[in-house]
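so i finally got all the pieces together for this one. its two components total, 497 residues if u count the protein bits. some of the lines might not be protein, just check the labels. i wanna see the whole assembly predicted at once instead of chain by chain like last time, that was a mess tbh
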Amino acid sequence: MFPFIFEWEWDMAHYVFMGGLYYALGIVSLGVAYVVAKALIQTDQGHGHGDGHGEEHR
Amino acid sequence: MDITARIPQSVSRIGDALTPRFLVDADKALWPKGCERAPLWMFGMWLGPWLFLAAWGGIAAILCWGLALNQTNMNDYYGFAIWIWADLAVIALGGGAFFSGFLRYVAGKDKLKNIINYAVLIGFICYSSALLILGIDVGQPLRGWFIFWHANVHSMLTEVAFCLTCYFIVLTIEYAPLVLENRQLDRVPLFHKISHNFHEIMAVFAATGAFLSFFHQGSLGGVAGVLFGRPFAYREHIFIWPYTFFLFTWSAAAYGPCFTLLCTRIIEGITGKRLVSNDVYHLLGKIAGWMILTYFIAKTWDTVYWAMNTAPERGFHWREFYSDNAFYGVWILVVELLLGGIVPALLLVFKKTRENMFWLTVAVVLGVIGVSVNRWAMVLQVMAAPVMPFDQWALYYPSWQEVATTLLPVAYGVILISLSYRYLPVFPQERELGAGKAS
């Protein structure tokens, strides 16, 4: 019963399936965490508003 | 066909007079900078019928959840029915998001930045619709988490569920910066930064999306291809993957951009504005054309191999799958392979027809029909075809509840596109191409 599903077994099928899922979720979570953390730091440091990717900057 | 221009002035004056001023001002403050939109009352009237359709679908969904799946015409023959066809079709059509994202962020086709927002929006709608339909189809959506907790790691559908969930998260992340670029939200420094930072690493999400899409599109095809008890669907394998695995991924990448282009043509027709420049149409059309052409060759080879080898080895002549019934004839193969395959491929591959907006539109319409017919055959014809000597063709028609719940995502899609177009900078070229026309 590890890692994180009820019928977990230490075999190749579980490694591939659950490994793929955690791999994708890991990348996505890290990406979001990086973006939000960086934005919080930038906002805290008071970086200007005009360096963004908003509609007027395309 | 600018709808706003068709409204008589007297009606416009009444509509304007009846709309409270504060609502008009609040609405206007949310429009993308420098873009004109239709009056609020007209927008409300446009949304009305779609909200009605969504409510009808919502009632049908509640019936299916409340009174169980006996509300449908599914039976022992049709465990998969119109919902799963709709699911597979919208997932294929939503493939424009992952493939355009891959082309834009990984392959470096920079021109596609002018249509990528819309492709992502359409992908977001298609995938959320797929999840909505599945939520109704499983009967007990509150047990949806079972597929993660009690994962059957030998099932292609488990992999589909994993990838669909992850890819929907990716699409939400890709759609989020667009929402944050709303004129008012963008004024909040934190939101502005988040949106900006998302764009900086969007290639990571686009590549993850392409990875996830490759597997779930493929596995949806693989589900049909591994059915060794159903010779109409069964295919030979490369390692553990049947040919249908690769054909489904390929077709989604080929036809998904067609749906993106078709939706762009539709929104341009309704608003009466040019929103995307011709060179973007030509580039995406050309890529889709070559993808469809190569897919057509692979699919034709697969069909011939199946007809000449796979089906006979299991005791069937291929004609048996297209005869002795009231619906499934050879016509379905003709529509899928010729009308929805080689014809749009050639129209998009040749520069003269690709750069003619009429023929480009014809090509993308035929492409959308072609891939939808393919998914129909791979879901419903598979179920209908007899497999035992004593079996007969089992034809099926959906109940009104199934039809209503299948139309629900259409209404939802139109509503979300309408709201996004009105309040978000979906089309970066809008100001440059359209000279301030209301829409």
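Helices of chain A lie at 12-44.
Residues 1-37 of chain A form one domain.
anyway lmk what u think
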